[in-house]
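Study this fold:
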Amino acid sequence: MATALLPARVAASRHALSVSQLIRTCPLEPKFFPKRCGFCAISAQLIRSPQLVELEYAELNLPRNPSEELGHVRIRQHVNPLRSSLSVPAEIPDWSRVFKDPALPLMVDIGCGSGRFLLWLARRNPDLQNYLGLEIRQKLVKRADCWAKGIGLDNVHFMFANATISFQSMVSTYPGPLMFVSVLCPDPHFKKRHHKRRVVQKPLVASIVDSLVPGGKVFIQSDVFEVALDMRDQFDEHSHVLEHIDSIDPSISCDGDGWLVDNPMGIRTEREIHVDWEGGRVYRRMYQKRN
């Protein structure tokens, strides 16, 4: 793109403009920034969604490479959870060594990715809840654990584990109550013959529902409508045990099709940030187990 076509404020410092500077010069309010205005669309080459991720999670102050041993962590987007190496249950940790207080309520994030989402929650709730991230990309798990140790968090832990194999054995040994389970933007495995690779399958759903304590919650979301609908249908089959959150808390808004209008967690996941930047939509549901 020719520099002459850029707005004057951008053209003057095209190669030096930082993400924060771009936001300050955007004519829209900051809360609208992820959705491109005309100014930001022209300036799109100056910023990418990974930079927006770093900005959103800036308060964590995470180093890109937390250890020399790990080096640069490349993210493999698609992993086959049915391969033999992932069919072995993960080793149960010593919960008293993993968490400072293993009696606290537990949140499990299935497919936690880089772990930034859980790290942010753990830092916000240091004495109220423990957080466990399950992920099948081992390098991401190692980096997330390095981050957790680096910022001194003792209420979050990450495990290299296939949730469809290890979830039940993990949570059944945890000393405290399972209060929250999230499955956020899982791998869609688009091809019909690969649908069996999707993480949300009937056995896992049943295990989640059975393991939650009364009042415990499940939060699911995807930017792929077909995947969101599939997850929704499977959890809706347990309507005798689960209630959708808007029927309990009228202050939570849903659209006409029953999808949550806003993310109730206080911060977007990395995938959400990318989808918002691209102008897409995220479909969300939250359930609470009946007392």
Notes: The longest strand covers residues 178-184. The chain has two domains: 3-47, 98-289.
